[in-house]
Write the structure tokens for this entry.
Amino acid sequence: HAGVNYYRALVDALKHEFPAVDFTFTLCCGEDAAIAHDALQLGFTRVVCDCPVGQFKQLKESAEKAGAQLLRNNCSGRP
């Protein structure tokens, strides 16, 4: 797995290479709330994280303040 900085650089390179293309990059962080937090801090606007509910609620508040979306894909079976 590549780190969050790798994906940030990838998104930036794609936006530079294809400035006329409007796209949304969704970063999946699995169950790792720390990675999701880092992604939000680096300006990702759409992040998926299946971390425990308490962590998810805290991240969701941060995401909303930053104008980002934090989503669950529930493949881990968490409520």
Summary: The beta strands are 27-28, 46-48, 69-71. Residues 14 and 21 are 9 Å apart (CA to CA). The chain has a mean pLDDT of 91. The helical segments are 4-17, 33-41, 53-65.
